[in-house]
Amino acid sequence: MMKSSIKLKDENERLEKTVSSEGKSINSKKSASISQTTEEWLKKAQELPFFMKNYDKTKDNVAIDAITALQYEGEPLEIAENFKYHGNECYKTKKYQDAIEYYTKALKTKAGNEIETACLLSRAACHMELKNYRQVLNNCYEVLKKDPNHTKALYRSAKACFFLDRLDESLNHINHCLKTNYNNDIFKSLKQKVLERKKYLERKSKEAYERKNISFIKKTTLQKALKERGIITKSSQIEPDMGDIELCLSSPLDITSTLLFPVTFLYPLVLQSDFITQVAETSTIQEQLDLVLASKPQWDKNNEYSPSNVEVCIETKIGEIIKVKKNAQLLDVLANKVEVLDGIVRLLILPKNKIDLWINEWKTKQKP
């Protein structure tokens, strides 16, 4: 039996006598039944000094201080083996953070390469369960520095790289192992997963590039179409959120296809508006009036707003208000005369008998 085990036995006998004298004998309760789970046993055991991990350090506790000191008594290998044992028990019950602490204590004893390798790999296993993949790599790296062909370290490194999408590194670890252990099915299975993941990411990257490229071509094609047609555009400092509504071509990659404009119909005398998401450049103003004023608006109390009883005007690029012929196509109204703000055409609709007065009042307000 190891020296540390004898010391632990002596210490436990001394502790039983100490606790008995205080009327709190450790053995005052029946032993745990065989049906207890390991987790239940550990929970009860942590109430005893030897297994305590958290206690009030400001209070004197001879038993706990003795146990703490005892953990570090003996040869380095004995101490390391003890910590490793407790780490393994914690790992079995999925107490990974506690297990890491025990393995770390074992490593600090500097008890030799063999147990250090075991504890590094066990600590890596805990970090793998906790999804601390970079810590997995750090622990395995320490093993691979001493033994570049260590199978378990290579596997856990490859697996951690896989989860981090460092796929080329993962393949390097796998292929390194398969050079000398080419029949290893575990490595072959992981390699298949890595290759599938790599293929998937390459496909997604290609699709993203194509989308970006197509988006650029669409934008360039639209700009050329607007320039060829003499359409002047301008953007606000803060552009409105229009969602999917936008000035576009009916065939985005065809410069000769029809321009489609979002159009707002403003009724300044009654502070009302209508909106059409797409109006073709070839459509006439009259066609759009027939659409938006097909039925009498609820707000038209004086029956002034009908397609035949209204006039249309628009603001030019130099800030003037001009009347628009209702039989004119939208392109003719806009070309080289109107600045289309944020891609939206704005038409002003007023009753025939009031439009001239409104324009004159507007001009008066614009004078300095």
TrEMBL record:
Residues 1-34 are annotated as: Disordered. TPR repeats lie at residues 80-113. Residues 24-34 have a biased composition (Low complexity). This is Cns1/TTC4 wheel domain-containing protein. Belongs to the TTC4 family. InterPro entries: Csn1/TTC4_wheel (IPR044059), TPR-like_helical_dom_sf (IPR011990), TPR_rpt (IPR019734). Keywords: Repeat, TPR repeat. GO terms for biological process: protein refolding. One of its GO terms (cellular component) is nucleus. It comes from Pneumocystis murina (strain B123) (Mouse pneumocystis pneumonia agent). GO terms for molecular function: Hsp70 protein binding; Hsp90 protein binding; ribosome binding. It comes from the Eukaryota. SMART domains: TPR. Residues 252-362 form the Cns1/TTC4 wheel domain. Residues 7-19 have a biased composition (Basic and acidic residues).
